[in-house]
UniProtKB/TrEMBL annotation:
Signal peptide (residue range): none
Pfam families the UniProt entry points to: ADH_N (PF08240), ADH_zinc_N (PF00107)
GO MF: oxidoreductase activity
Gene3D superfamilies hit by this protein: Medium-chain alcohol dehydrogenases, catalytic domain, NAD(P)-binding Rossmann-like Domain
Boundaries of every Enoyl reductase (ER) domain copy: 10-321
Originating organism: marine metagenome
UniProt name for this protein: Enoyl reductase (ER) domain-containing protein
């Protein structure tokens, strides 16, 4: 099978298109014909050898994908051959075939394309568990979304609105701010040209926000923490801008909290909440609440370019890699 192959830890530029053996599904796993995958920042971290898991060489990156079930491992009962699905992957999305856990593979929603499925699984499910279970976002509260023009940021904006929150989207350029507003945010602030805390406090009449969804980290964290009101919750979702230090004294003074959110936790320890999150996402999607933004669609041959668009923050929403676009048309 064709794949974008990682043979050594390093920059994503070291990835090369080549041939790999087709993987074999084990118990409780399925083999997928990948139609589309999408780039995630974590793919670059994995290729660099700095991710939480380190696959054996050679491997293909790609933490999610959408396609067709072509083989069932022993014990799989929730899927059948031919099913149109989206899946969270350990790796392998940048290949023509990949193995997925059956419990982390879901049927595409009605009217959902493979491309939208590839853009949905990780971003929307991760954002939902973060806001629903870690941030405990409630209707009527105010949500601040950093990196709001990214894939997970756009998902958080939409999910926040479905939960009944007032949403402030924060991004680094006017172009991205316009995209965030068009995608449903009530307000948008530019943290590159102005002070984030001052802009947020002005919009909230000095009260601050209830929840901050933060996939950025770095220097932005300090201002984001100051944007929280009394009892505010800061969700550490990622650190594309660097890993921040959390000052405990500033949490105590205003009864704030800072929590991490990892999809792996829910997979390993609270799969019941993961099931509930996906059910709520499916219901909202059926009502037309979600519209995944895909700024670029590239073939597998340009997979490195797809990852570069993400790591260099040139994308709005998701970057999808079309592994087998003809199957999208035929299905």
């Amino acid at each position: 099978m064709r794949a974008l192959i990682c043979r050594n830890w390093g920059d994503i530029g070291t990835l090369e298109l080549g041939e790999m053996p087709v993987p074999e599904p084990g118990p409780d796993q399925v083999l997928l014909d990948i139609v589309a995958t999408s780039a995630n920042y974590a793919d670059a971290i994995m290729v660099a050898g700095k991710y939480q898991t380190k696959p054996e060489f050679p491997f293909a990156p790609g933490l999610e994908g959408a396609g067709l079930v072509v083989k069932l491992g022993k014990g799989v009962e929730n899927l059948k051959i031919g099913d149109r699905v989206m899946a969270k992957l350990a790796h392998g999305g940048f290949a023509e075939q990949a193995v997925a856990e059956a419990s982390e593979t879901w049927s595409l929603f009605d009217r959902m394309s493979f491309a939208d499925g590839a853009a949905f699984a990780v971003a929307y499910l991760s954002a939902h568990v973060a806001l629903r279970w870690q941030g405990r976002l409630e209707a009527g509260e105010t949500l601040l979304v950093l990196g709001a023009a990214g894939g997970s940021g756009m998902a958080a904006v939409e999910i926040g609105k479905t939960m009944g929150a007032r949403v402030i989207g924060a991004a680094s350029s006017e172009k991205k701010l316009q995209a965030v507003l068009q995608h449903g945010a009530d307000h948008a602030v530019n943290y590159s040209s102005g002070n984030l805390k001052d802009q947020v406090l002005e919009l909230t009449r000095g009260e601050g926000v209830d929840v901050c969804f933060d996939p950025v980290g770095g220097d932005l964290f300090d201002s984001a923490l100051s944007s929280l009101g009394w009892g505010g919750r800061h969700i550490h979702y990622g650190f594309v801008g660097g890993v921040p230090r959390v000052p405990a004294n500033r949490l105590l003074v205003k009864h704030r909290s800072a929590v991490g959110s990892s999809l792996r936790y829910f997979q390993n320890f609270r799969p019941d909440l993961l099931v509930q999150s996906m059910a709520e996402l499916a219901a909202a999607y059926d009502k037309g609440a979600f519209n995944p933004v895909i700024s670029h669609r590239l073939p597998l041959e340009r997979g490195v370019e797809a990852l570069r668009l993400l790591t260099e923050r040139k994308a709005v929403g998701k970057v999808v890699v079309e592994v087998a676009p003809k199957k999208e048309i035929n299905q």
